[in-house]
Amino acid sequence: MKIFTNRKNSLLCAILLFCACVFSCKKILDPDVIELPTAVNAITMPSDVEKGIAAAYSFLRAVVPDKVFLMGDMRANLFSSYSQSSNVRVETAIATNTAVALLNNDGGNWNQFYTVIAQCNLILEKIPQIKGYDELLRRRHVGEASFIRALTYFYLVRFWGDVPLNLKSVEVENLPRAPQAEVFAQIKADLDVAIANLDLDYGDGERAVRASKGAAWAIKAHLLGWMQDYAGCEKLCDSVITQGPYSLVTDTMNLISIFVGKSKEGIFELNFDANARELQKNRVYNRTLGRPWYKDVSDGGGGSDRYLLCPTRDQINTMFPPGAVDARLFTWFIKETYLQGVNEDRIFFGKYRSLQLKGDTSSQNINESNIIITRLPDIMLLRAEALASNAVGRAGEAAVLLNMVRKRAFAAPYTGGGNIQDTILLERKKELIGEGQYFFDLVRNRKLDKDSKITAGDWYQKGAWLLPINQTIIAKSNFVITQNEFWK
């Protein structure tokens, strides 16, 4: 993506709004979250909207990689420290699902998500006021802003359940948490707008890194699956697979190219490109890679390879039984570390190991791997899950899709036996590890107590899967915002 946030507009926003907001009521969000993207005259022409869209992607890129890896993979107990007594990283405790661990890792803070939403609200408010708009461009901008807002609310509702539903760029009233059903309805409405306005393909240069009709179909399929509407989910997945311009990467020994970005199977991903100044520090990659990728001794760097987050040997063997053929073992993970001795058995996770050429390793702002939100195997396996569900009951077709994903990795085909739904869930774990999916998969399938450290039999009914809300957010709302029941 070669479009950038306009910092001058952001500064203008804060200045213009200061006088209006200084005497306003307390807000549910930190004031900067609302003020930063908002200004009366910040968007007056299509080129301003383009910059505003770029800002929305930038805000999304700032929050999703960290939050989704920690609360989508770490919380699902997929990664851990070298031991539980030495070289223990603070993130490891997330899997224990204690309030202290979650809050210490920013699991109670939704403010950055509302930054994204406020930006999208502003864009959608301003577009109808602009004259001389090329119709195709206008439709694309409406579709993109609607898609980004929908995706952001989808993360919010999956993390916290009932959340404030704000459709204004500036909201000076205290907003209570809206019921999940209302938030789902808004997400669905936004995705339908995106589907109606976006094209399937905008060319290779913007493949997957900007919203498309296929991306909107894919996120709506996930939404319907989350809502247990597997019949609707299956149909949307089928649209992505049969009508979208997507195909599996067939060079099995070069699967890492998927995470360089813009591959043929990419549906939507967050772009990281040094030429566009889109680099980040201390995200998924910095926590999981040691030497020779990071050579400094800062937190998450290569100073001590033991201080990295990696699957344990038992976690690896659960996914890839010893002796079984599966190319993902040596493409998702790094062979050199995998072959070390038992006492130094740190299995580096390597999906995100693409670095800026001659980058500054001391700053760690060097990673150019894209963060995948959804790609074709995700949707193929989601469709398989829907087909195998009791609501749809077409397990034979589900097995075909499952085996297409397995064949690409040279893994043995599924030939029956066992529980096909559990087999598909395990396949999602193997294929999508590190992409922030597995915790959501376990909740959607109501199997969190079967494959995580959240083991209470009534975890779903009690809301143990939801995150706590930071007390500062609750207090700033004058306690209009209430805590999730499980965390009271």
From TrEMBL:
It comes from Chitinophaga qingshengii. Keywords: Cell outer membrane, Membrane, Signal. Residues 63-221 form the SusD-like N-terminal domain. Gene3D superfamilies: 1.25.40.390. It holds the Pfam family SusD-like_3. This is RagB/SusD family nutrient uptake outer membrane protein. It is found in: Cell outer membrane. Residues 348-453 form the RagB/SusD domain. Belongs to the SusD family. Residues 1-24 form the signal peptide.
